[in-house]
Amino acid sequence: DRYYPIGDPFYSEMADYKVKLKIDKDYKAAATGAAVKESLNIDTSTYAFEADNVRDFAMVLSDKFTVINNHTNGININYYYLSDPLPENSLNTACSSIAVFSDIIGKYPYGSYTVAETNFVYGGMEYPQLVMIASDLAANTREKVIVHETAHQWLYGLIGNDSIREAWIDEGLTEFLTALYYEEIGQ
User: Fold this and answer.
1) CA dist., res. 18 & res. 48, Å (int)
2) How far apart are CA 173 and CA 161, in angstroms?
3) Burial classification of residue 21, based on how many CB atoms lie within 10 Å of its CB (0-12 exposed, 13-18 middle, 19 or more buried)
4) 81, 100, 139, 186: which has the fewest C-beta neighbours closer than 10 Å?
5) What's the pLDDT at 10?
6) Which pLDDT belongs to residue 1?
7) Using CA atoms, how far apart are residues 184 and 165, in angstroms rounded to an integer?
């Protein structure tokens, strides 16, 4: 299919990824999968990422990231942020959305999940084990975007579909799950 200017213009089968990345030592990498090996030397950092049974591999790099993390349901949750004035709130939203969706849809099958604040232009974008959220979001919008993009870990990420011909399965059900999340937490 050609690349469409709106929506999710691609879909892919599941695959296993092993990615080695060598970057300037001042940069941090947020990516699909877990960093299984990291080495530092005078000028560079080398990361090795592994992700099994995922639809895509994505990464984002910055020399301005601050990283915080937490655990929920045995999953390491990371938040890479640039200018978020309430980073703990964003991390807590990521943790609670993974927990709620694991309860109502099915267990999140990976050992890590990362939310990365970027200069992304449209709210957010999902990839397996990694979502990007725009840095210019208001606090209440930021929370909703994190919940929405986290729901995509199941709808598109695990339950794949042709998002060009059947977008309702991807975006429609994800919007439903976002509303259901707020009902589950009592808001």
Assistant:
1) 7
2) 12
3) middle
4) 186
5) 67
6) 67
7) 31
Joined tokens for residue 17: 């990824």
Let me know: does 149 contact 122? Beta carbons within 8 Å.
Answer: no
Whether 147 contacts 133, CB under 8 Å: no
β-pairing verdict for 34-40 and 130-134: unpaired
Predicted pLDDT at 73: 92
d(CA 147, CA 181): 8
Distance (Å, whole) CA 88 – CA 79: 9
Find, among 66, 60, 84, 72, the residue nearest to 141 by Cα. Answer: 84
Read off the tokens for 148. 């929405």
pTM over 0.90: yes
45 pLDDT more than 70: yes
Q: What is the mean pLDDT of residues 131-157?
A: 94
The residue with greater pLDDT, 115 or 11, is 115
Pair of tokens at residue 139: 């606090």
Helices 87-104 and 173-184, axial angle in degrees (round to 10) = 100
Instruction: Report d(CA 67, CA 73) in Å as an integer.
Output: 20
Q: What is the average pLDDT score of the chain?
A: 91
Distance CA 81, CA 86 (A): 10
Q: Which amino acid is at 41?
A: N
Q: Which of 168, 171, 87 is nearest to 133 (CA)?
A: 87
